[in-house]
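**Paired protein data**
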Amino acid sequence: MAVILDGKETARRIREKLKKNIEKLKAKNIFPKLAVIMVGEDPASKIYVKNKSKACEELGVKYEEFLLKEDISQEQLLNLIEELNKRRDIHGILLQSPIPKHLDINEAFKTILPEKDVDGFNPINVGKLVLGQETLISCTPFGVIKLLEEYNIPIEGKNAVVIGRSNIVGKPMLHCLLNKNATVTICHSKTQNLKEITKTADILVVAIGKPKFVTKDMVKPESIIIDVGINRNEEGKVCGDVDFEEVEKVASYITPVPGGIGPMTIAMLMENIVKTAKNGKFC
């Protein structure tokens, strides 16, 4: 049976360290603050935003929320971002996705100052990640790497396979692993012979949003399975993209859903906020 990669407990330990760092910043009159923008009434987004608010409250990070109507114009959204860019008391800006289809999310991400981009989606930060330079990294891939490191799981030289090529997880995950000297293959809906590829993976990261998509026969024995998916099955129960009960029998390490990468994502958001506050530029 696989060892469970406990993201909830690991995130708790990380938050304890961050709390001490935040106290040190406050002693220097630096008060980390996050601004979160949410457009519309997406139920999942409401939950995610609430979790971010709770994390800020727990760590003593200041928090300001901007709830915008669904029919807001692109110009109004960008004007708000520009206002937050100028505010010296705000260290991090996060635009919760998804946003309504009439809005250009890439233009919005581009408008957020790179040094306040705690989600790591500004093209400048994405470019730095691709080049292997120090930058703010998208929180979910960052959380995956951090969890592996906390369990002393080597990445260098391993065959890593990522299923999913989204801008939020798949693509930055590819570069995070590559920057740690893994050999990386990325798979998607057009990939042929998927099972043959996944069975070569020492580290398999799954982020496609399909409940229990990865089955036991797709997994190399003793591999490390990272499940980024959050879905609800027919009974309404939360589950991941991996058939946990079956895959757990053959893997060496596996993340649960819930309690795996989700808490790590929030912890890495807090780490990014501390990082932006430390630069002192907006204090």
